[in-house]
Structure to design on (874 residues):
């Protein structure tokens, strides 16, 4: 049998401890699958004394992950520290430069420095694996990087944040407010004390930026993403969506258009009968559309110590099955130096259907004024419904419009016009509709 | 750049022609992804003169695929002939023995001879890739063989036959009979002139037997599968399922139980709100449940020239990225000689919920007699409903029972008892209910 693969783990939180435990518990099976033993020979974390439910006495302890990355007797450096700078970036860079394979679950690091790190890995002929960085246990990186070779992707979209999907699922199922669901999510550990990063879409954007690069062969562009969170989604939206045959999900979408690549994260209406609409709670899902394969959808646990550990171990096993001298496929599907610059399609050129919910003063001519603004901007309507179900049904009405395919620019102009007309009681709500199979 | 990877394709039907065309059209992109050119250097098919919409003039023609496998200047032999014996088996065996990597889409061949062929490949240190053999374009082999390393699978199940799913989808959507939907499927090319192999579940069984081996590390056992097709599913079943919150799908299910491994293919009721219930038409889906990752679901096109070609090309690209001397992971996840014998769990020990539809004579005591037979066999009922919607509502009634979790043996005894009681007008219908998320 080949020599054992020596693994160094930096970061022993939930995921790190889970990786170490599974590697120990499944050692015999992993050896059978990989043709060699996988052993944890070095670890690093903040607190050496903490009990993590796994025996790490056989591993050498390092206080400093960079020291581990450079000086430990390891073949693979597993980075589970987190953060786009600091110890994570320094140790991953050091490991790659020392010629060690790297496995990381760090979406922030890759989103910011992935192309640079990929360049180092490819120059050294070593692997940089990161299945756990996007959609937890779902093997979307392997699918896009390996299984879809030769496919030209037209669109990739997904539910990439379990916190948001948990909140939206409970809002719909139980009729609760966003605030109440968020509080419950925090109590259950599905949301952070400061939930901004999740609920405003930043976490989804990090993950999306990596998928975009894999899909389109472009350099990662985490700052060129249109971003809208879920904090202004109300029961009125959820109910109206349901009546119209839609469900609201926070999607990350990357799409090739005539003017460039659209990257957007926003609440989205998807048809209730679509597969992705059935993805509930903290589950994640990714759909990929290509010219040859067609449409593929993967759904599964997007977070959690074990699911994330499973992806990390899959990455380690792939390295264990490889041997020195093996020339690997490029980190982001195409060689880092051949990734082309990201060309951003402006959001104003986005084409699609729109849901528009307006709370208007109940007076003559309002309905006509709204319809006129739509017509002026050449927006044709699939449906227009007037409800008397507002807070003050005697003086206010709710108008719900669903448009046929139009452009973001037209919708913005129309809504600005409606606001200027002075008929609105409240801020208008605009939610994009996404095709989904 | 490394030397070009030379591919020989045996079989130039829809899939073979599509593989050759995509390799030509996406040559530059594939070279970027794989770090070397991929060229079709040899082909074999029955008719050399046929126009296949792709220029094969650069490839050497072989009349005999075995001759191609042994004597062509190739690195990879792509078998797209089909069939479990004959030219397919002979040429794949010859290619492996000549030390050539093999890519095949042939589920029948693998189902019957996969372990033997894997043994040859592993001895020679070469690859036998077969992503296209199960669920067409869905990367389920790569997911189970690579991404799920270290996971212990408890159950794998899926919609593995597009013909059956197309028929069941149309029956539900349009209220048509099985026979009418089958005729349409034949007209549209979704079903063969002799549809037995698809509609009686044999095709699903072939694919399931391969997934079972990957899931449980057991030798492939295509003959130890409980088999029931969809030809006796009626509108009465579809409607009753819908009223109860279920949808009927032909599933292949492999499951670890206390007494062994269950492999079964049968019409199944899955909750309408589950993800797999939204998989419509010719689309396939596979769900995998494991101890570490949790539950993963993949859905996508299960057949068609392009989708199948995409899987074949992914397999070829994986070989192109590897280099001589590379030691690959085993063909079925564990080395062929370490796959343990398949231990069959008898169908009688299967545990689950059951749907039972009875057409009974409308006379006093029938309802009580049915309930008594259930009670005798310790089957507790979730619901029991009597309908007057039979063909002869004045003399007949329909009784629909849904059981709580029970055993196949108990249900069979109860139904035999009901039949013996002489109250039935028609054959009883029994459909198993499957948990699905």
């Amino acid at each position: 049998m080949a020599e054992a693969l020596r693994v160094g783990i930096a970061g022993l939180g939930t995921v790190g401890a889970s990786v170490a435990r599974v590697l120990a518990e499944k050692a015999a099976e992993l050896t059978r699958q990989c043709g060699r033993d996988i052993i944890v020979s070095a670890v690093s974390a903040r607190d050496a004394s903490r009990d993590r439910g796994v025996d790490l006495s056989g591993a050498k302890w390092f206080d400093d992950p960079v020291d581990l990355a450079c000086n430990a007797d390891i073949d693979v450096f597993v980075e589970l520290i987190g953060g786009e700078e600091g110890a994570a970036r320094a140790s991953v860079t050091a490991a790659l430069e020392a010629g060690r394979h790297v496995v990381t679950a760090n979406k922030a690091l890759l989103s910011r420095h992935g192309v640079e790190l990929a360049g180092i890995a490819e120059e050294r002929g070593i692997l940089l694996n990161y299945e756990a960085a996007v959609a937890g246990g779902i093997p979307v990186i392997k699918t896009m990087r390996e299984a879809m070779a030769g496919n030209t992707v037209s669109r990739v979209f997904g539910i990439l944040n379990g916190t948001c999907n948990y909140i939206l699922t409970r809002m719909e199922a139980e009729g609760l407010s966003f605030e109440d669901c968020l509080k419950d999510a925090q109590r259950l550990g599905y949301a952070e004390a400061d939930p901004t990063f999740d609920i405003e879409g930043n976490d989804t954007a990090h993950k999306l930026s990596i998928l975009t690069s894999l899909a389109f062969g472009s350099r990662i562009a985490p700052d060129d993403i249109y971003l809208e969170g879920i904090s202004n989604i109300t029961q009125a939206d959820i109910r109206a969506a349901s009546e119209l045959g839609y469900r609201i999900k926070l999607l990350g979408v990357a799409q090739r258009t005539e003017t460039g690549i659209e990257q957007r994260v926003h609440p989205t209406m998807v048809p209730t009968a679509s597969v992705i609409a059935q993805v509930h709670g903290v589950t994640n899902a990714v759909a990929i559309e290509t010219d040859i394969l067609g449409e593929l959808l993967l759904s599964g646990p997007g977070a959690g110590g074990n699911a994330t550990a499973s992806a990390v171990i899959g990455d380690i096993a792939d390295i264990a099955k490889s041997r020195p001298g093996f020339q690997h496929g490029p980190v982001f599907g195409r060689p880092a130096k051949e990734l082309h610059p990201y060309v951003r399609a402006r959001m104003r050129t986005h084409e699609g259907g729109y849901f528009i919910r307006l709370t208007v003063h109940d007076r003559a001519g309002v309905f006509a004024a709204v319809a006129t603004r739509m017509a002026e901007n050449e927006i044709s309507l699939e449906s227009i419904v007037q409800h008397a179900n507002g807070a003050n049904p005697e003086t206010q009405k709710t108008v719900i419009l669903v448009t046929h395919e139009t452009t973001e620019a037209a919708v913005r102009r129309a809504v600005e016009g409606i606001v200027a007309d002075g008929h609105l009681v409240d801020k208008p709500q605009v939610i994009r509709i996404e095709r989904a199979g």
Q: What stands out?
A: The CA atoms of residues 191 and 223 of chain B lie 23 Å apart. Chain B touches chain A through 65 residues (CB under 8 Å). DSSP finds 14 helices and 17 strands in chain B. Chain B has three domains: 5-136+305-335, 142-301, 349-433.
